[in-house]
Amino acid sequence: MIIGVLKELAPETRVSLIADGVAQLTKKKITVWVETGAGEQAYCTDADYSKAGAEIKSAAEIANGADIVLSIHPPNRSVHSSTNYRYSKWCSVDWYVPSSFSN
Questions:
Q1: pTM for the full model?
Q2: 90: left (phi over 0), alpha (psi -120 to 50) or beta
Q3: Which of 17, 63, 66, 87 could form a disulfide linkage to 21, CB 3.0–4.6 angstroms apart?
Q4: Maximum distance among all alpha carbons in the chain?
Q5: In whole angstroms, what is the distance from residue 83 CA to residue 16 CA?
């Protein structure tokens, strides 16, 4: 299985999977592809991802080749029009936490 992680569009600064998560997945023999610069706004460099076992790829390679694509927000068709997304494999991980949330 190949899991892909895409870089979010500005102004988003989160990333859907950090390097620690990559390390856990690769220990389970899951291949992880991360788009170049995907974690830079979340203080997770390409080198961090590579050290954790990820392969650094382009957005098109990830969208067209990964079995599952992780992102915070759903894909933007106008921005990503050069890729052949299979939307059934997309996993958006955006969380809504109401202001009244408490432990």
A1: 0.78
A2: beta
A3: 17
A4: 43
A5: 20
The number of C-alpha atoms within 13 Å of 76 and in the hemisphere containing its C-beta is 10
- The answer to whether 33 touches 25, Cβ cutoff 8 Å, is no
Spatial distance between the Cα atoms of 44 and 24, rounded to a whole number of angstroms: 16
Q: SS3 of 5, please?
A: strand
Structure tokens at 25: 């997945």
Task: Rounding to the nearest 10 degrees, give the CA dihedral for residues 39, 44, 47, 52.
Answer: -100
Q: What is the pLDDT of residues 39-84, one digit of tens each?
A: 999 999 999 999 999 999 998 898 888 998 888 877 665 445 555 5
User: What burial class does residue 76 get, using C-beta atoms within 10 Å of its C-beta: 0-12 exposed, 13-18 middle, 19+ buried?
Assistant: exposed
